[in-house]
Amino acid sequence: MNDPLAGEMVFVKGGTFMMGCTPEQGGDCRYNENPAHRVTLSDFYIGKYEITQAQWKAVVGDNPSRFQGDDLPVDTLGWDDTQEFIALLNEKTGGNYRLPTEAEWEYAARGGAKSRGYKYSGSDNIEDVAWYVENSGNRTHPVGTNMANELGIYDMSGNVWEWVSDWRRDYGGNPQTNPAGGQSPDSERVIRGGSWYDGDMDARAPYRGSGGNGCRYCHSGFRIARGSKR
To answer: Class assignment of domain 9-227?
Structure first.
């Protein structure tokens, strides 16, 4: 099949950043965003947009979404559902797609090496970049209709929550390189970015949510990543 993600992956130059509760967040940090710690990442690619319903249908065939529309992000997904999509996509295209790690997701949301230190992904004004509870009209919106962040990536704040690969874990203060997150199957998976259903606190770049692998939420979706080499 033709690759439905061709041309929609953004190259993210690796680098070092402070992950977690950083000064621009002011007093809004939650307990699980501490301590802020230094993380170094290798180059990677990440989706310019959240996976759309058209892309989901091209790979899987059905459409589980509560809000229907080809250019809307696919929603009502559990973490296990993302793995089904990725396995089928890689089988059909010969790619090596995966979910981003939590650290990759936050680095990209912050603008990577081009970061300007914004509170949300691409702005200090949430209305510029996010569909959230105050402006969404209680539904998702077509991907890419708000302002992009410094890397040209859309909707990393708001629209739908995005599953990442990591198990939930507490942060440590030591520097890390390419962290992959916790390993406990008794934990939950991390979900990032806030959604149409949630407030401005949840749309902040470092905010961390979580859920069980099989939990399907009407405000959850995902975006794709891959390494720097095909």
So the answer is: alpha beta
Helix (H) or strand (E) holding 45: strand 44-47
Alpha helices in 114-216 (DSSP H): 126-129
Query: Domain segments of the chain: what residues?
Result: 9-227
Taking CA atoms, 33 is separated from 10, 167, 203, 220, in Å, by: 26, 15, 13, 21
pTM: 0.96
Rounded CA-CA distance 205/104 in Å is 12
Give the pLDDT of the chain (230 residues) as one tens digit per residue.
778 887 899 999 999 999 999 999 999 999 999 999 999 999 999 999 999 999 999 999 999 999 999 999 999 999 999 999 999 999 999 999 999 999 999 999 999 999 999 999 999 999 999 999 999 999 999 999 999 999 999 999 999 999 999 999 999 999 999 998 766 666 799 999 999 999 999 999 999 999 887 777 778 999 999 998 65
